[in-house]
Amino acid sequence: MGALLEGLGHTPAHVAGTSFGASVLLGLAARRPELFRGIAVHEPPPMEVLADGPAAMEQLQPAMVSIAPVLDHLRKAEPDLADFAEVVARLR
């Protein structure tokens, strides 16, 4: 996302994200605030909160398996998302 915004020359930008995209947006905004004029997030998954509960993690496991290819793609395409991907990977 950061590379896209920079490549298009549209920074700082107003950006919105929902669900997992909201989590990605929050992580990028925390690391690269200069890219954003404003952000709007809708229902980011509370993965770090769920990590404390074994029962919740058991329910989250199928979702983590299904988003693994997305996280792999993000790691390759945008290295500054590696920290966020590592946080999510620890939840597996």
Tag the structure with descriptive keywords:
single chain; 92 residues; alpha+beta; two-stranded parallel ribbon; 61% helix; elongated
Written account of the structure:
- 61% of the residues lie in helices and 14% in strands.
- It has five helices and two strands; from the N terminus they run H-E-H-E-H-H-H.
- Helix 4 packs antiparallel against helix 5 (82-90).
- The longest helix has 24 residues, at 54-77.
List the topology elements.
Blueprint: H1 2-8, E1 13-18, H2 20-31, E2 36-42, H3 47-50, H4 54-77, H5 82-90
Parallel strand pairs: 1-2
Structural class: alpha+beta
Strand/helix succession: HEHEHHH
The percent range for helix content is 55-70%
Task: Give the strand content.
Answer: 5-15%
Number of alpha- plus pi-helical segments: 5
- Shape assignment: elongated
Largest sheet: 2 strands, parallel
**Spatial strand order of the main sheet:** 1-2
Give the total of beta strands: 2
Radius of gyration from the alpha-carbon trace, in angstroms: 14 Å
Distance between the termini: 24 Å
Question: What number is the mean pLDDT?
Answer: 76
Extract low-pLDDT stretches. Answer: none
